[in-house]
Design goal:
D-amino Acid Aminotransferase, Chain A, domain 1; nine-stranded mixed beta sheet; globular
Length: 308
């Protein structure tokens, strides 16, 4: 989906016109993937735009930076306020938000610590990540030939730019097969996640999802769905999921900031359950959207109003 330009981007503490937010071609990040980032959404509510999971996303941004020894030159609160200010400046009612912290231009070599740390916040209007109708009709996916990183090679719990080459390979393979997305297994052959989404499996009334040890990113929307499932009285188990359980499942769905809660209708050409969105997936979707759109109370404090 093409990016819809906004007016400005927050760049190292200043608002810069969208087309002027540029870096040098010899910046460290372009050559070695030395960046951390977040994907966040603001939703339209009666009180104006509200950011979903603002502080959990900011906390994860700082954690990701910590593990690659990158010191963000702003406090968490300054980043949170800059996110809200960028949304206000761009006059969004709802939007996608991309904070990005990266190593810029100084020296060029694998050793990164001589390069300056730069910080960017961009916002733009963005629709359904996996295509129009995906939230209702579901998507067709396949198990990828690519595996997620093995333990002690890269850091799956951190959202590091260079690690997403693995995700690119998985989603390109899926699209070449005519599918919307790929499901990636971990190095031991257990279900891990999609290229940019966490995954849930409903089997015999129980909701399963891979544990953090299955080389997954600990998604903020994943955390929200775990809480919603508990609120609705469903048993949830975080455990290793064998590949064949995907084919036996009654329902399977992705979660993520971009994907929200997207049902999966087929996996490797086999229908999931009845081959459409299942009742538990729909119930979770209904509860999720009722809260984030302000039709039900924000009982867990997930939303941060942009205009306070």
């Amino acid at each position: 989906m093409p990016i819809s330009k906004a007016e400005v981007i927050w760049f190292n503490g200043e608002f810069v016109p969208w087309d002027e937010a540029k870096i040098h071609v010899l910046s460290h990040v372009l050559h070695y993937g030395s960046s951390v980032f977040e994907g966040i959404r603001a939703y339209k509510t009666e009180r104006g735009p509200a950011v979903l999971g603002l502080m959990p996303h900011v906390d994860r941004l700082f954690f990701s930076a910590k593990v690659i020894r990158m010191e963000i030159p702003y406090s968490k609160q300054e980043i949170a306020e800059a996110i809200k200010a960028t949304i206000r400046r761009n006059r969004h009612e709802a939007c996608y938000i991309r904070p990005l912290v990266f190593r810029g231009y100084d020296t060029l070599g694998v050793f990164p610590l001589n390069c300056p740390v730069e910080t960017v916040i961009a916002t733009w209007e963005w629709g359904a990540y996996l295509g129009a109708g995906a939230l209702e009709q579901g998507v067709d996916v396949g198990v990828s030939s690519w595996r997620r990183m093995a333990p002690d090679t890269l850091m799956a719990m951190a959202k590091i730019g260079g690690q997403y080459v693995n995700s690119q390979l998985a989603v390109m393979e899926a699209r070449a097969r005519g599918l919307a997305e790929g499901i990636v297994l971990d190095v031991y052959g257990y279900v891990s996640e999609g290229s940019g989404e966490n995954i849930f499996v409903v089997y015999d009334g129980i909701i399963y999802t891979p544990p953090l040890s299955a080389s997954i990113l600990g998604g903020i929307t994943r955390r929200i769905v775990l809480q919603l499932a508990e609120d609705l009285g469903y048993p949830v188990r975080e455990q290793n999921i064998p590949r064949e359980m995907l084919y036996a499942a009654d329902e399977v769905f992705f979660t993520g900031t971009a994907a929200e809660i997207t049902p999966i209708r087929t996996i490797d050409g086999l229908p999931v359950g009845a081959g459409g969105r299942g009742p538990i997936t729909k119930q979770l979707q209904d509860e999720f959207f009722a809260i984030i759109e302000g039709r039900k109370p924000d009982r867990h404090g997930w939303l941060t109003p942009v205009y306070e």
